[in-house]
Design brief:
With about 425 residues, the protein is of the alpha/beta class. The protein is about 55% helix and about 10% strand.
Length: about 425
């Protein structure tokens, strides 16, 4: 599994705390971070540290540039190119090749000083002063800027000011990778990274992919061919056919069930298709339940609760386990008791297990479609499912026999006293 890697570029001494905060923040979410002052940074002993930094950034997916008041070490002092500036230039080349994404942060105080000096420069142009004097005024040192001319030029470079002017004049392609994020605190940087990169922590993104893959596999194996050459689930057919079957109360007493030839033709065909299905073990689905992937947080109660998607996921795993139970017990191979004038006569026990397998199959597909729509398109539509038991009276008895939460709480209370 490839996880996005980050490279932090800046002068070190004035950004040491911020660099460590960014590294910790990203690594806590599972992302590898390259920061040259740490021992986990690749440091080939036969290569100069500057060249090692430039080589290391080529393995990154995101280049985080922090610009403050310091110049830092010179990469090419004769041409006034700092090592941070050179790292940026190498990263920008990679960006144009689509190999890395740039995230540029400038201290708000530096950005404000730059804007003020741009206004001052505009004013000086209207005054009758020597050009060298104007330049000295604009680039004078302050407690905010140790080398105002270099910092201003560097910010103009990362803003791609000259490239933008050329493209505007020639009608060419405008430069990219020139978004600037002013910041005054770590939270500003974390917010920008979260908005652009960390739409979900890597384990969540991976789990989402695994769930989609598993749900697609369920549908690929379980959907049945319709008469028109398309695909559908059997739930509408089951609702229609089973709704027309006669479920007399004595069906369990006399031990057999009469099904018309018309209805049996439909159910038999579904039974054949169902018998050929082999769903893989729901490992990713089970893991998502254990991790609480679809659980939601309620800020009012300060607790997690089961979202509708979580309920569907649990139901899907349960239905898949019951389907396997039916298949393992050969419930799809029912036995004729005898023919009668109404149609086919079957063992009532066999028919119940047979219909149970078909119902589980239908529900698995409906739940998989529901969850897949939610994961891929953020659309949740409550699935309409087949009941646990096809005999209405038996289903009603099963539901009434369930012990609900208030009764369980009452039992727990009685044990506390």
């Amino acid at each position: 599994m490839k996880i996005p890697k980050f490279f932090i570029s800046s002068t070190i001494y004035d950004f040491s705390d911020l660099r460590s905060s960014i590294k910790y923040y990203l690594e806590q979410q599972g992302y590898p971070v390259l920061a040259s002052e740490y021992n986990d940074f690749p440091k080939p002993l036969d290569v100069h540290s500057y060249e090692a930094c430039i080589e290391a950034l080529k393995s990154a997916d995101y280049f985080i540039l922090l610009i403050g008041s310091r110049v830092g070490g010179w990469y090419d002092e004769g041409n006034t190119v700092s090592i941070t500036q050179q790292e940026y230039r190498e990263a920008y080349k990679l960006h144009k090749e689509g190999k890395i994404k740039l995230m540029i942060f400038v201290r708000s105080s530096i950005w404000d000083v730059r804007e003020d000096r741009k206004a001052l420069q505009a004013l000086l142009k209207t005054l009758d002063l020597d050009d060298e004097i104007k330049k000295k005024i604009v680039n004078h040192e302050s407690k905010f800027l140790s080398d105002a001319e270099f910092i201003n030029n560097f910010i103009s470079e990362v803003c791609r000011v000259n490239d933008a002017k050329l493209s505007s004049a020639s009608g060419g392609v405008r430069p990219t990778g020139n978004w600037i994020h002013p910041f005054s605190a770590f939270s500003d940087i974390a917010q920008a990274i979260q908005a652009q990169v960390l739409l979900a922590p890597p384990h969540e993104a991976v789990m989402r992919k695994l769930l989609i893959s598993d749900l697609m596999a369920i549908l690929s194996r379980g959907l049945c061919n319709s008469g028109g050459g398309g695909l559908n689930t059997p739930i509408s057919t089951l609702n229609e056919v089973i709704g027309k079957l006669n479920f007399p109360e004595e069906v369990l007493d006399n031990g057999y069930w009469d099904i018309s030839g018309e209805h049996w033709a439909i159910l038999g065909r579904l039974g054949i298709e169902c018998s050929l299905i082999l769903f893989l073990p729901p490992i990713a689905l089970q893991r998502a339940i254990e991790l609480g992937f679809f659980m939601e947080f309620d800020i009012n109660t300060n607790e997690y609760y089961e979202s509708p998607a979580h309920v569907c996921l649990c139901k899907l795993v349960s239905e898949m386990n019951f389907f396997k139970f039916h298949k393992d017990n050969n419930s799809l191979k029912i036995t004729f008791s005898r023919f009668n004038q109404a149609g086919m006569r079957f063992s009532s026990h066999d028919v119940l297990f047979f219909l149970g397998a078909l119902d589980r199959w239908a529900n698995i597909l409906e739940l998989a479609i529901c969850l897949l729509n939610y994961l891929k398109y953020d659309i949740f539509k409550e699935p309409i499912l087949r009941p646990a038991n096809p005999v209405p009276s038996m289903q009603k008895n099963q539901e009434s026999s369930l012990i609900d939460e208030p009764k369980i709480e009452a039992i727990l209370k009685s044990y506390r006293h």
